[in-house]
Amino acid sequence: MRRDVKSNIVKLYVIKISKWLMLTVPIVFLFYRENGLGTRDLFLLKAAYSFAVVLMEIPSGYFGDIWGRKVSLVIGSVMGAVGFGLYSVSSGFWGFLACEMILGVGQSFISGSDSALLYDTLEEQGLGNTYLKEEGRLVSIGNYAEAIAAPIGVGLAALSLRTPFYFQAAVAFSAVPASLLLFEPQRRRVIQKGNFTQIFQIIRYALTRNTGLKWRIIYSSVIGTATLTMAWLIQPYFVHLSVPLALYGLFLPALNLTTGFVSMHAWKVEARLGRDRTVLFIAFCIGSGYLCLSLFSTIWAVAFLYLFYMVRGVATPVLRNYINESTPSEIRATVLSIRSLIIRLSFVAVGPFLGWYADGYGMPAALLAGGMVFLAAGIWTGLQLRKEAPGNAVEPFLADDGALPPAR
After folding, report:
1. Which residues contact 320 (CB under 8 A, 6 or more apart)?
2. Same-domain pairing of 216 and 310
3. How many domains does the chain have?
4. Is 395 within a domain?
């Protein structure tokens, strides 16, 4: 074991904090409204961000597997700092659109490589079985950072709604030195370095040849799309409830503290319920959360958001662990990027539609529509996962002679 590799975990904490200490999130919808934008524009901009992630998600994951997860994280950190730097001086839909595209490409270089580097760091130390706990802590730290950011962002917004963006640029820059100081863990590497046709081999392996991994990815993507969509529906929902701005700084951090606390103990929930019941529990609660919110239009309905975020705290580390358990080390970042790509593609389709639906028919109708879709998709894919992925065995991506393994 190399002590320098062990230090990666602390540096990944710094990178996670820089990405989740989002001073702008609590007021971004109000900031857009100040610049003449509406709910539809909010979802169009966030869909553009997701589209940028989609364009680079799998290539950037493959880049991390080939050239190193550290290099990928450095590129993503630099682009994050640049994106928020430009955001702080931009105005109007098209200016914001350019910033979202830069931030999306930057995020694609971080997505997958961070979890892959964490998993392989633990594997090198002989601690691979502790990944779920460590991922839970990492998710928890991110949510704690977002919780702290909410009141700070609201406080800075009292000066002006643009002020949080100035500070966000500085926060994003903190990831740059942390990523530069990372060390690359030892791992098996794909044989044909730089051969981009291998990307299609990896996609085929993950989504057709390894059926257990396929359903873990698809199910995790459904739940990920549901939680991502809810994250951007919260502020329009608060506007629908006429929640005062001052309470944004109370409700939003409490939501993230809830997720953070539960994430640290997600492994206990999964151990108590067992894998099969955990899968259906997550799917049922996530879909039902949308439906419950659609039925009430009083401030007390915020209680359902806390229940939703508790389940999110279980889902995030548990579902990442399910995928990592079934993924060979040499293609881990690419496979995790496939999951993120599916989530972003789904959000590009669902997010703007729900934003348009909310503008035209009201927030309760949009939540009802989203709830029916996510409940049905979550339960169905969860049942498929239970049937097709009962074990944790890792099927090799390439045999010793470099050939693809036979299809199952």
Report:
1. 115, 135, 220, 336
2. yes
3. 2
4. no
* 294 in the same domain as 203: yes
Q: Which residue, 337, 399, 346, 398, is CA-closest to 377?
A: 346
pLDDT bucket at 407, cuts 50 / 70 / 90: very low
125 part of a folded domain: yes
SS (H, E, C) 70-101: HHHHHHHHHHHHHHHHHHCCCCHHHHHHHHHH
Q: Which of 147, 121, 124 is nearest to 134 (CA)?
A: 121
What is the domain extent for residue 366? 196-387
Q: pLDDT, tens digit, for every residue of 179-236?
A: 898 887 766 555 455 566 777 888 888 888 888 888 999 999 999 999 989 988 888 8
Task: Tell whether pTM > 0.90.
Answer: no
What CATH number should be reported for the domain holding residue 236?
1.20.1250.20
Distances from the Cα of 105 to the Cαs of 47, 57, 71, 82, 258, in angstroms?
13, 8, 14, 11, 29
In this structure, the answer to whether residues 202 and 154 fall within a common structural domain is no
Q: Which two tokens stand for residue 120?
A: 């392989």
| Alpha-carbon distance values, 338 to 128, 145, 265, 342 (Å) | 22, 26, 27, 6
259 neighbors 269 (Cβ within 8 angstroms):
no
For the stretch 125-157, pLDDT in tens is 777 677 777 777 777 777 778 778 888 888 898
Average pLDDT in the 75-80 region?
93
∠ CA 224-113-7, nearest 5°, is 120
**Same-domain pairing of 361 and 337:** yes
Is 371 part of any domain? yes
**Distance, CA of 67 to CA of 104 (rounded, Å):** 20
Element (H, E) at 156: helix 131-157
Same domain, 315 and 201: yes
Q: Tell me if 319 is assigned to some domain.
A: yes
Task: Look at residues 181, 212, 245 and tell me which one is the last residue of a structural domain.
Answer: 181
Residues 355 and 280 in one domain: yes
Report how far residue 229's alpha carbon sits from residue 233's, in angstroms, rounded to the nearest whole number.
6
